[in-house]
Amino acid sequence: MSGSFGGWVRGKVADPRVTKHLLIREGEIVIDEVRHHWVLFLFPGFEALAALMVLAAAVTSPVDSAWVPLSVALVVALHALWSTLNDHMDRFVITNMRVFRVRGVLDQRTATMPIARILDITVDKPILGRILGYGHFTFESAAQEQGIREIRYIGRPDDRDLTIQSVIQRAGLRAMVRGSRDEDDGSDDTGASDEPPRLPGARPIRTRADHARLHPIYRPDDPHGRTGGRSRPGS
After folding, report:
1. How far apart are CA 61 and CA 67, in angstroms?
2. How crowded is the C-beta side of 199, counted as CA atoms within 13 Å?
3. pTM listed for this prediction
4. Contact yes or no for 226/216 (Cβ under 8 A)
5. Are residues 126 and 100 in the same domain?
6. Do β-strands 109-114 and 134-141 pair in parallel, antiparallel, or remain unpaired?
7. Which residues are within 8 A (CB) of 36 and not within 5 positions of it... i.e. 6 or more apart?
8. Do 137 and 154 form a contact (C-beta atoms < 8 A)?
9. Does 120 share its domain with 70?
10. pLDDT tens for residues 186-224?
11. Statement to judge: residues 50 and 28 lie in one domain
12. Residues 6 or more apart from 85 whose CB is under 8 A from it?
């Protein structure tokens, strides 16, 4: 029973379930699912340690006043747990079509930015980030209102930046190839013709040019002497 409850908690509460946001029918796949860097979990860890220290102090406190440190320890421990879970549920996802962010423990929020709208990515690596291996992303897009603006505490920021740039380049090349194919097949797709439309089963309409080409007559001034199968006068 406890195992099934723990699996339910991990599946429903501690897992953002990124795959349910994918456009499976359109061929969207996850290239990278980015979690926050471990440095972001240091402060909740310190809070949990402080809660344990306060709890130890409550053991040695008088019975009448023990509820005070116990309450403080409980509040600090719950805050540490909530902060850890909230940071754990915050995921930044890179796919072959877009980037999106899923976050929230009870109320989930999703923000999406198509790959084609990404104009610029700024990677900010502070001194501590360069030492520990994390950075912050700032996105610039063509949209006036951006769902994704800043992603903080990203591990291996240079590798993630190269991944996004590679996806952008591949998407641009696919768009160029698709556009050139559309231009090459434009005449075939439109089906345009110089021949006037006619009813099904009706004879094709012949113009004077067609009649002259099919039944030429002899012209004395024609240097080629074309007769079209007819004999010349006087021959």
Report:
1. 9
2. 2
3. 0.68
4. yes
5. yes
6. unpaired
7. 87, 88, 90, 152, 153, 154, 155
8. yes
9. no
10. 555 555 545 555 545 555 555 566 656 666 655 555 555
11. no
12. 13, 14, 105
Tokens of 29: 């796949």
Do 73 and 178 reside in the same domain of the chain?
no
pLDDT digits (tens, 9 = 90+) for 88-129: 999 999 999 999 999 998 888 999 999 988 989 999 999 999
Domain that holds residue 127: 22-36+91-186
Q: What average pLDDT does the chain have?
A: 80
Task: Please determine, for residue 172, whether its predicted confidence score (pLDDT) is greater than 90.
Answer: no
Do 167 and 75 fall within a single domain?
no
38's CB contacts (< 8 A; 6+ apart) are 155
Distance from C-alpha of 71 to C-alpha of 67, rounded to nearest angstrom? 6
Of the candidates 85, 72, 99, the one whose C-alpha atom is nearest the C-alpha of residue 171 is: 99
Distance CA 13, CA 187 (A): 55
Residue 47: both structure tokens together = 């809070």
**CB contact burial 33-68 (16+ within 10 A = b; e otherwise):** ebbbbeebbeebeebbeebeebbeebeeeeeeeeee
Among the residues of 185-231, which ranges form H helices? 186-190, 208-214
Q: Which of 82, 76, 65 is nearest to 14 (CA)?
A: 82
Does any domain span residue 2? no
Residues 157 and 56 placed together within one structural domain of the fold: no
Q: Are 212 and 228 in contact (CB under 8 A)?
A: no
